[in-house]
Amino acid sequence: MESNKKYWKGLEELNQTPAFVDGSKSEFAEPIPVEDVLNEAGLSTKTPRRDFLKALGFGLGAVTLAACNRTPIHKAVPYVIKPEEVTPGVPNFYASSFNGQSVIVRTREGRPISLEANPNAIGLNQGTDASTAASVLDLYDMSKLQNPQIGGKDVDWAKLDQAVVDALNKAQAAGKQITIVSNTINSPSSLAAIAALATKYPATQHIQVDAVSYSGIIEANRASFGKAVIPSYHFDKAQVVVSVAADFLGTWLAGEEHTQDYIKNRDHKSLKGGKMSRHIQFESGLSMTGSNADVRIAIKPSEEGAVLISLYNAITGQSVAGGTNNAKAKTAIALAAKELVNARGTSVVVSGSNDTNVQALTNAINTALGAYGSIIDLDNFSKQYQGSDSAFQAFLTAAKAGQVGVAIFWNTNPVYDYFKADDVKAAIAKIDYTVSFADRADETSSELKAIATNSTFLESWGDASAKEGLFTIVQPTINPVFNTRQAEQSLINWAGVNKPIHDFVKENWETNILAGTGKVWKDVLQQGFVFKGSATGSAYAANVDVNAAAAAIANDAKRVAGGVELKIYESPNLRDGRWANNAYLQELPDPVSKVTWDNYAAINPADAEELGVKETGKVTVEANGYKVDFTSVVTTRSSKRNCFCCSWIWSYESW
Question: What's the pTM value of the predicted model, to 2 decimals?
């Protein structure tokens, strides 16, 4: 026993703090010299066999005495009548939908435990991303409200319903607006519930606003083609892709869907066939997309529009003013333009800007490349983002003027994610009655009069139509964990439609979706989707005043250009912040920086040295009236000099 090691259970035991010493002596009812026997001196002593057996017997007896406390009784109650479909230890599977994609939910003994893509789905089978896989954890989030609230206090549903109906009647009688403010809603049944409320209260209007806005693309397409939609992008048909600050493999529009298409032209089969696609990326901070590009050029945020102007000139032979002066970018643009023109019909340019003029210029470039109808599809468009910045601004203006009687906020938190939070608060203060379908007292719902706590998709009936022609079903896999009620049920109750939401969804499908498909409701529940097919994509020519767009782009660039420029990007894991309380996503490392559970700023090493910034230090970034402290700094040669690229963990305490 001369080489025995001593193990300690904590720093208190290692340091032998007074509190630990006192506590260890009173561990047993009677003083027992355990430490004297087991200390280093005792263990190194030559012990006769008889003494060893005494110590061993004493140790077993002491442990037995220490364990004589009454153990809590746990009773296992078997099924009196076992559900036919439940077999302990054997999982059940249900078809459902998450963010418009058909998924399969695995359950065990009535509890959902995981999600995976529906392998039989047609139309949008893109695999599951991190938020899909982690969404099960949200079901058991104890920070959520467990009951509806009025004035911050729990109430029953009958009292809340009466208060809301009284407010709706008052607003209708006074001739004031009743506004539903939501993020993008592409659910046919949700839209039908809104329509039911509007039937009873004709003053009802629906405003959609997204925390991460793509309104610039929608408005540019409205002006260029007369189609206010976000197109589908078929990167599997592209031989040359040029992206200007669009992280299309990450957070831009539909990263998982684009990735599945993108890899079809960049796998070993493409390499053997000599047809691997080319990808050129212009961006500020290193993104998932930039890290996969064949050529990556670092630019400042203020240079994005100028790069597109120069690219347009190089492709069309025009001389529109406002091109870039960046020497490296100009060389890359000249080479990229040649490749794009040589692959006309199979080449595309995408931009991550939310500026309408930048997107209009991008439309003009893609028209010159013949990308519409093949790679860019305006007919089978995406419904994943339909928010309108101008419509939300009009709502704020009307609310401040006292024209809104009731405002209902649904799956949106503008006090947190709108760039002018004070404007939203000022508007809310002027509205007679406000209610939210939030699941917690977030920044917006805590400012409102009532919260009609919403259920998760795993507890709800519903549907989605994320793509033209595709419909997916949402069905519950567990009863509501808390005293919550899905938003659609609340809306039809307030509209006087006295039926369960299951019946409402079923009737809507049988009347408006299943007609002509040869399928019935039971088929939908089993398969999880209905795909009515895709239309043949048509070629379009953009109607764009390029000179006017370029002049506006140049003026905007002058406003933001400076010695040090800030580029804020969306967290690939937490996205717009709605999953900030999900520990799985907080723990998941950023795919580029590998940072978890923290705010950080990325900066070029040369700039960091010049500013005296160290990786372990703290940086305060102030812009547009906001100030954020970043607890770590990532110095990376992938960032453009004089450019901060920042991401903060989107939690309710961030600001």
Answer: 0.82
